[in-house]
Amino acid sequence: MNSKRLLLTAGLLTALPTQAETFYEMSGKVSAEARYFSQDAQFQHQDYSSNLSFSVEPEFYWEWNDGIDSLTFTPYLRVDGNDNERTHGDIRELSWIHIGEDWELRIGLRKVFWGVTEFQHLVDVINQTDSVEDFDGEDKLGQQMINLSLVRDWGIVDLYLLPGFRERTFSGEDGRLRSGLVVNRGQASYESSAGEHHLDTAIRWSHTLGDFDLGAYWFHGTNRDPKLLLKNSNGNTYLAPYYEQMDQIGFDLQATIDSWLWKLETINRDTNSENYWAAQGGFEYTFYGIQESVADLGVLMEYGWDERGEDADAAVQNDLFLGARLTLNDASSTEMLAGLSHDIDYHSDSLIIEASRRYGDNWKLSLDGRFFSSNDPMDLSYSIKQDDHLQLTVERYF
Amino acid sequence: MTLLKKSLNSILVLGLITAPLIASAETPEEKGTRIAVEAKASDKGWQDMQASMNMILRNKQGQESVRDIRLKSLEMENDGDKSLSVFDKPRDVKGTAFLSFSHAIGADDQWLYLPKLKRVKRIASRNKSGPFMGSEFSYEDLSSFEVEKYTYNFLRDEACEGGTCYVVEQFPVDKNSGYTRRIAWLDQAEYRPWKIEFFDRKNSLLKTLTYHEYNEYEGKHWRPNLMKMVNHQSGKSTDLTYSDYLFKAGLDDNDFNKNTLKRAR
How far is A129 from chain B (nearest CA, A)? Predict the structure, then answer.
């Protein structure tokens, strides 16, 4: 060990809290997932009907200065039986939080969620989608950020500096639930000359006024949704992601009135190639204590609209969503969810059924079924029309 | 509502001064209300409170399941309390947190934080009668006691574990309550509840809650270490044990907002 490194180590040791006043905790989960595809694949290299995959996500947490400072580290690793691109690792979170009287500073890799609707998350733009995880876009990659959050009587203001960009993950040629042409991440390009090092910024205000929870923001930086450009090299045709710069304003609103939740999200996205509005809105109504039991049944309906119509490169442009959520409120937290989406322009449908319950204190079992139908090759969901599958997930928490 | 409280307080003061004179003239409704007002007043001034909660859920066959929750709450002047609960167990919901601004009259404001999605969800509070985490306690059983939540009917005096108890019928004002009525036993010395019987919407006895191992904090605030809820209709039960009570730690409004909800642990 040379003297420089020794000095660095000494510096780190003094910066870190001493053992006595630090609270440390580890938790997390490991999960095994089995998929069974009921139809023959549509594309080459997809000729398998079952897939096994394992993931691990521990969380390490330290807290010192009576909770004024804390550090969270959440690495993630997935190993997939067929798709090399789905075998991947990420740091979901490595962040330090410092709390003041009416402000918080959060620095590091973090995940931020904005929005209120269930079937699409239009206004949620800070984190990149980890799309190899699942086709629903709910999984996100950690985003590097400096976030100052201010609590005021008139709402919470969040200021974000986002240094650096995460590329979207895409299924490889051996993956199912992908587009017909494979996306080559190695060929990604950017509008900004700074490329993936562009410094993005965002400001968001959110507040509660009686029954209403609302938020508004402005985001300036690299569009998380790439344009997929058709490329050709050595007789191979593939898609190459192209990340534009964008300015986006967004607004979200939820009214919580008796058993009703009314929800609306809307955005305006301005890039070099287009400027458009899109919106997702609807309601959720819950019947409590159905059939004289303690179970609750929620019914959901949402509509998604995109000004660009059939020219949109988004999956939702004129789509209707219906859902039902049954919560048994039992000791095992048994839940069932069914969601149907119908594309009014392309007349395609997808049906998703999810059921889950806890076994013992530390195990959770989920059974999902996903079914697709599409007859129009212009429809984005046409490429997954033969990827109907059942998915069994076993999770062990520690 | 301030007006209501003020008038209730003046009834209380008037009642104390003139009690021997008009005791016989007091109706059971008035006496029941007076006891509720006095019970609330006797516990006033706790400011803020923190505690750990452990729940053991038992089904008819005796199978157990555990819930660990940490709780912070803040006393509000002229309104229901604010509270923040964080779940430690079961582990699949670890980090899930619940923020509630309760109101004596009308719907509470409630938010749920889902750590997996990093999402804060405003939830409907209409669900007062639903089970809390699959236990025999419903949300309304765990919410703060406010005089305005019930109308009252004094039944009788009766010997109880805490000495002599007032036995009072309580009729929920909120139409979304899961009960037609409750019967509560409060000791005359400190107004501590020792037993509550809950009657379902068909007015049949549904559950019995008993309070055990009271301790006094900060000179006047009595809290039980153990609450046992037995459901007579399903044969299930839940034991709720409190530990690490801490009062007057200086919590304020800034400890109860969406930012604290997201990092509660």
Answer: 12
